[in-house]
Amino acid sequence: MGEYQVRKQPKKYDVVIVGSGAGGGMAAYMLATAGIKVCLIEAGPMYNPQKNVTQLKNPWDSPRRGASTHYRPFGDFDACYGGWEIDGEPYTKASGTDWLWWRARMIGGRTNHWGRISLRFGPKDFRRKDQDGLGENWPISYDDIKPYYDRVDQLIGVFGTNEGLENDPDGYFLPPPKPRLHELFIKDAAAKAKVRVIPGRLSMLTQKIKSTTDRGPCFFCGQCNRNCSIAKADFSSSNVLIYPALETNNVDVIANAMAREVMTDKEGKATGISYISKDDKMEYQVLGKVVIIAAGACESARLLLNSRSQRHPNGLANLSNVVGKYLHDSTGASLGGYLPKLFGRKRYNEDGVGGMHVYSPWWLDNKKLDFPRGYHIEYWGGMSQPAYGFGFGIEGQNGKYPVNGKKKEAGGYGASLKEDYRYFYGASVGMGGRGEAIPLESNYCEIDPNVVDQFGIPVLRFNVKWSDHEIKQAKHMKETFKEIMHNMGAVITWGGDDDEKNNWGLAKPGEIIHEAGTVRMGDDPKRFALNKWNQAHDCKNLFVVDGGAFTSQADKNITWTILALAMRASDYIVDELKKQNL
Amino acid sequence: MDRRKSLKLIATGAVAVPAVIAACNTEEKKTTEQVAGPTFNLDRYPEELKREKKLLAEEKFFTPEEMATIAVLADIIIPKDEISGSASDAKVPDFIEFIVKDMPEHQVPLRGGLSWLDIECLKRYEKPFRECSHEQQIEMVDDIAYPERKLKPGMSQGVKFFNKIRDLVATGFYTSEIGVKDLGYMGNRPNQWNGVPDDVLKQYGLAYSDKELKECVKFS
Q1: pLDDT tens across A409-434, in order?
Q2: If pLDDT is split at 50, 70 and 90, which confidence band does B39 have?
Q3: Is the pLDDT of residue B19 over 80?
Q4: Which residues contact B108 (CB under 8 A, 6 or more apart)?
Q5: From A426, which residue of chain B is nearest by alpha-carbon distance?
């Protein structure tokens, strides 16, 4: 570095937002459309789904045929920049604990590749402590958030059906796609196991919606994880929130900007963000009347803990000393195999949407179970686009089942082998559970006293372990899935041999990428970082609008609730700015 | 190799560039370098692109002799038949050359396996595998292609190798244009999902419920 000086961005903004995913994107959109001047800081590069395209590529367009890399762990066509490891940006783990940290680094964050599963939390999800004595109740109820779910449904679009279920609320749904063939088999098999199966709830436009003329209906290529460059038919923060927000001319985006800390004044109020530009390696400051943090639950906690000052010796928003604590991810366990009755099946295009057309919301009563909270089940299978890994291990399959009526030896080669690949294609089926973990004080991330990243920013050290609650849940998942597979006549080829030695195949903490709870909201400033408006108890012009704010996370994917809460917090900010309260 | 063809392949990102460079003479190499910075037709971000370029600039991993053996094996595993072409028609050997650089964990098992195969053939036929007659090659392959047979002594490592090369040949083939067509995958194009076709529902004795027919999106 030739000269060391901090450059101050000359423009003073109403609001500075850190992070451009679901929470940051929604805040930017809401505030910009309300006429508020916003500066949006993103640690990754600019990304425009209209120009950065992986959609509708063929497997051979990737020299590795869609295999994953360090840079695209979910495959070469996945839209997300980032991954489990980012060069130059380490994180550490306390010994005997585990955490896998997914970091998206791009405009729109991980919403560019998420599963688009868009589930509202239900009334019971906000009051879990009342039911099982574990964790905490939220400071808000379903009735508080319902109007915002309604608005998110209508602004962004989601398909599904109103089923009148107590804890899986109805919404403003577009018509769902019909089940695929394997999903019809799943429906029957699950019914026999007394597991309810209903149409999926995913944010893809099966029809045009009224809120926008910019987004087309889905054309069923099944590639939502590549982001819908062509029709913008699925939700990503980039397509649906950020670029529309930019059109208001009220938003400046600073990409490749790694936030270092939230700056505060003598009174302890936030004044803006200091960041390092990855482009020129220079230090910058940008000022705003309000600061919104939406960097992702763990990155937001890190930023707050690194924002120490005389007034906030413990880090910002951390008077309660809970920032980083109560970190929890969804539980996850899965298994799969194939359905012999689908061998030799007729070919047709069954791509559908990029995800499940049916799913199972939690269906049981915990009073009769040995674990608290529940899980939902996601399903997959069928004739998907071939990719790297296709055909692996055929010798485990072609000796077991007659091919077109002919008994064969396992393995082989030649024209006979080609017949086998054709015969077995499209018969795969699988399922996974996503459940609610209990947020515990003993599961946390903190600043590692010994390690900094390449920018000199102290990094996170994780300290997370599953408890018996989650392990028992995984066991229950596996038992349920086996029953469904059995009822279908399916053969399990993976995930069927788990036992207590490997926690019943329970995914590692962090692996499901639904991290939440690190900056939790609650009424008591001594025990919670934020109030019910996502506003820091100890710094009234500071807000956190990502999963960090969650008091608990339900057995539902958290994006829809992040969006609803970010919308709600944005309304509150607009209001408070008008009243000059911030 | 025809240079125009090779440049076209670079542009589509369909093949590993080093395979092209190595095949060119010095004069042509210069030209190839001028177009360095292969254009990917799928999105790459800066750090990722840096690695891709490095990977594509690497020397060829396999020797010409190893590549020749891979090509023979690939076409034994996936020959031309009445439905589709062969593994080498689908450029599977080029895919294997690329993938071992992308995933170095394949390098030792493949190189070692190829070497094992040649030594075995030298013992049996006094020639490396690629120079054996087709009948000899098939005789050799029959000893390692069927893992559940009672194996001849000393064949188990060969079986392991053949399982691996079969996997990579099949994956390379069925993710190529020829292979995808062979499988009959009909997606990856704009369309309208109207549910499982009627004749297929009938074949499996299934029907959509009235609720589904009423609620789900329909296209006429």
Answers
A1: 999 999 999 999 999 999 999 999 99
A2: low
A3: no
A4: none
A5: B185
What is the rounded distance in angstroms from the CA atom of residue A388 to the CA atom of residue A543? 43
> Exposure string (b/e) for A103-118, b if CB count within 10 Å is 16 or more?
bbbbbbbbbbbbbbbb
B158-187 mean pLDDT: 98
Question: For the residues A304-324, what does the mean pLDDT come to?
Answer: 97
First to last CA, chain A: 37
Interchain CB contact of B103 with A (< 8 Å): yes
The pLDDT value given to residue B108? 98
d(CA A40, CA A53) in angstroms, rounded, equals 23
Q: How far apart are the first and last CA of chain B?
A: 50
> What residue spans of A140-226 are helical by DSSP H?
142-156, 181-192
**Cα B171 to Cα B156: distance, rounded to the nearest angstrom:** 23
For the segment A36-61, the average pLDDT, to the nearest whole number, is 97
Contact with chain A for residue B109, Cβ under 8 A: no
Give the whole-angstrom CA distance, residue A420 versus residue A390: 13
Q: Break chain B into its structural domains and give their ranges.
A: 1-36, 56-183, 190-220
3-class secondary structure per residue, A47-76:
CCCCCCCCCCCCHHHCCCCCCCCCCCCCCC
Strands A375-381 and A358-360: antiparallel
Rounded to whole angstroms, how far apart are CA atoms A183 and A362? 18
Q: Which of residues 420-449 of A touch B (CB under 8 A)?
A: 421-422, 425
Cα distance between residue B137 and residue A306, in whole Å: 66
The C-alpha of A240 sits at a distance from chain B's nearest C-alpha, in angstroms, of 20
Any chain B CB within 8 A of the CB of A76?
A: yes
Token pair in block for residue A433: 């559970």
Q: Mean pLDDT check: name the lowest of A369-373, B9-13, B101-105.
A: B9-13
Reported ipTM: 0.95
> Is beta strand A283-293 parallel, antiparallel or unpaired with respect to A539-544?
parallel
Residue closest to A359 by CA, chosen among A555, A552, A112: A555
Tokens representing residue B155 in the block? 């064949």
Question: Which residues 6+ apart lie within 8 Å of A351 measured at CB?
Answer: A220, A221, A222, A223, A384, A385, B187, B188, B191, B193
Residue A44 has pLDDT above 50, yes or no: yes
SS3 letters across B169-180: HHHHHHCCHHHH
Tell me, what's the pLDDT at A10? Answer: 85
Q: Do B16 and A58 touch (CB under 8 A)?
A: no
Mean pLDDT of chain A: 97
φ, ψ dihedrals at A423, nearest 5°: -65, -40
Confidence tier at B8 by pLDDT (50, 70, 90): very low
Q: Which residues of B touch A428 (CB under 8 A)?
A: none
Element (DSSP H or E) covering residue B142: helix B134-142
Find the CB nearest A413 among B77, B171, B216: B77
Neighbours of A198 (CB within 10 A): 18
How many C-beta neighbours within 10 Å does residue A1 have? 8
Whether pLDDT at B21 is above 50: no
Of A347, A387, A412, the CB nearest to B184: A347
H/E segment holding residue A334 = strand A331-338
- The residue among A542, A420, A41, A281 whose CA lies nearest residue B174 is A420
Query: Which of A23, A10, A508 minimizes the C-alpha distance to A237?
Result: A23
What's the CA gap between A52 and A228, in Å, rounded? Answer: 11
Residue B27 has pLDDT above 80, yes or no: no
Q: Which of residues 231-260 of A touch B (CB under 8 A)?
A: none
**Alpha carbon distance B194, A178 (integer Å):** 7
Does residue B29 have a pLDDT over 70?
A: no
State residue A9's pLDDT score. Answer: 82
